[in-house]
Amino acid sequence: MKVYTKTGDTGETSLFGGKRVKKYNVRIEAYGTSDELNSWIGLIISQSIHEDHKSLLIEVQDRIFTLGAQLAADPDKPKLKMPRIKQEDILLLEERIDKMDEDLPEMTKFTLPGGNTIVSYCHLARCVCRRCERRVIELADQAEVEPLVIQYLNRLSDYLFVLGRKLAQETNASEVFWEPKNVN
Ligand SMILES: Nc1ncnc2c1ncn2[C@@H]1O[C@H](COP(=O)(O)OP(=O)(O)OP(=O)(O)O)[C@@H](O)[C@H]1O
């Protein structure tokens, strides 16, 4: 089958299940943003980072596909079969966050997002993750969304934040703290 079916040329696309919707539909915006997030994660994986980080991030990429499938499913077809985000997926992120946090200095101030390329990619991925979360919550106002999908995105942005700090530590990037000036 060709990549270009041309069925999307008039600005509509198909949900999983076949229903046609406009491409600016909040549901398309939600899973389109999960696709963007997944691409950023791929960029982090392609950097020179420890295998332990890479293997977890590959799991994350798989789970982003999973939640993308859940978001893409036509809500009027509840019997569609697909993989689903599980509580254990969230627990895995929490375990990794806690493990990385053990070796990090306590945060008493906001740090400016940056340090080096790898750390910056983590911040960009984190911001896109939070945008995806916002789009999914917008969708949840008008359609049923599995709560574990929202929880997963929320935990993933925390994971990406801590991963950024951990990679800053591992690459000896200095953390620059925000020093509010001219406070009045
Ligand atoms: N602009 C877009 N933003 C986000 N997701 C999109 C967009 N266009 C399509 N999709 C989604 O991406 C997946 C693959 O779509 P596909 O590439 O077949 O797009 P299409 O425009 O509907 O079809 P075609 O490209 O064949 O004309 C589908 O889940 C589709 O709903």
TrEMBL record:
Keyword field contains Nucleotide-binding: yes
Pathway info: Cofactor biosynthesis; adenosylcobalamin biosynthesis; adenosylcobalamin from cob(II)yrinate a,c-diamide: step 2/7
Protein species of origin: Parvicella tangerina
InterPro entries: CblAdoTrfase-like, CblAdoTrfase-like_sf, PduO-typ
Subunit structure: Homotrimer.
Molecular functions per Gene Ontology: ATP binding; corrinoid adenosyltransferase activity
Enzyme Commission numbers on file: 2.5.1.17
Protein name: Corrinoid adenosyltransferase
Every Cobalamin adenosyltransferase-like domain range: 3-166
Catalytic activity: 2 cob(II)alamin + reduced [electron-transfer flavoprotein] + 2 ATP = 2 adenosylcob(III)alamin + 2 triphosphate + oxidized [electron-transfer flavoprotein] + 3 H(+); 2 cob(II)yrinate a,c diamide + reduced [electron-transfer flavoprotein] + 2 ATP = 2 adenosylcob(III)yrinate a,c-diamide + 2 triphosphate + oxidized [electron-transfer flavoprotein] + 3 H(+)
NCBIfam families in the cross-refs: PduO_Nterm
Family that this chain belongs to: Belongs to the Cob(I)alamin adenosyltransferase family.
Domain of life: Bacteria
Entry keywords, A to Z: ATP-binding, Cobalamin biosynthesis, Nucleotide-binding, Transferase
UniProt record, GO biological process: cobalamin biosynthetic process
Annotated gene: yvqK
Cited SUPFAM superfamilies: Cobalamin adenosyltransferase-like
